[in-house]
Amino acid sequence: MSLDLLREGRVVGALGRRGLSVQFRKAQLLMPTFVLPLMLLAVISSGTSAARDLPQFPDVTSYITFIVPGTIIQGALLAGLTTGTALASDIEFGFFDRLLSAPVHRTSIILGRLFGTVGLAMLQASFFLLVALAFGARYPGGVDAALITVVLAAFTAVGIGGIASAIAIRTGSLSLMQSIFPFVFVLLFTAPAFFPRELLTPVLRDVAAYNPLTYVVEAVRGLLAGDAGLGDPWIGLASAVGLAVTMTALATFALKARLRAA
């Protein structure tokens, strides 16, 4: 049993490294995941900083510190989406079929792909924290808060990667995966990624209560600001882990359904 687990662990690690290296070799997959969140951070920090003067806005050390959690979660969304895109590419070009013919557990194929997503999301989150720090963000929560933020980003990316993988497995269409990018961002903009919940419109505020990303963003915000009143880290962790587990299971079920239909 232990030998089987060790073998499957090596398979997951190898597939994760492959997934990460493929993304770093393909600029069209990698660049948006790092560039787009920073562009949005620059636009929002320069264009809406006056919102800090509103009565409902929390007392934070800097506006960029308040909005950087939205940037980190946006990066996690993109990391997860690129996972589905890369998987759809593997399906279209036949690599996925070769994996299915290999003597490995089918779940390891899903976990291996998501293991690469974890690596990408952790790199992204660390990069965004450092860039924001250089441009004036301050993290009173300290190093521990930053490390937990990276972990939350990784779990969130796994959750989005799981649902993207499920869609890729069910459809096997690279073009479809590329077209769902705008729809996934509805999750980001129905969460208090760049404004506190109190300043959202009533409709968005009601929707945000059912969006798991709301609690992840607020948890990151509370951690980095060192203020639990801005977000509960435990609720955020539960939301991120729950999303990751549920969507990984969904991707696994999609793979089993594809094998049954083959």
General description of the model:
With 262 residues, the chain is an all-alpha fold. It has one domain. It has helices at residues 2-25, 27-47, 63-92, 95-100, 106-134, 142-171, 174-179, 181-189, 202-208, 212-225, 233-261. Helix 1 (2-25) crosses helix 5 (106-134), helix 3 runs parallel beside helix 6 and helix 10 (212-225) runs antiparallel to helix 11 (233-261). The two termini are 29 Å apart.
Record keyword descriptors for this entry.
single chain, 262 residues, mainly alpha, 11 helices, 78% helix
How is this fold's topology laid out?
Blueprint (H helix, E strand, L loop, with lengths): L1 H24 L1 H21 L15 H30 L2 H6 L5 H29 L7 H30 L2 H6 L1 H9 L12 H7 L3 H14 L7 H29 L1
> Mind summarizing the main beta sheet?
none
Structural class: mainly alpha
Number of helices: 11
**Residue fraction in strands:** under 5%
Question: Which stretches are poorly predicted, pLDDT < 50 over at least 5 residues?
Answer: none
Number of strands: 0
N-to-C span:
29 Å
Coarse shape: elongated
Q: What is the average of the pLDDT values?
A: 85
Helix content: over 70%
- What is the domain total for the residues? 1
Order of helices and strands: HHHHHHHHHHH
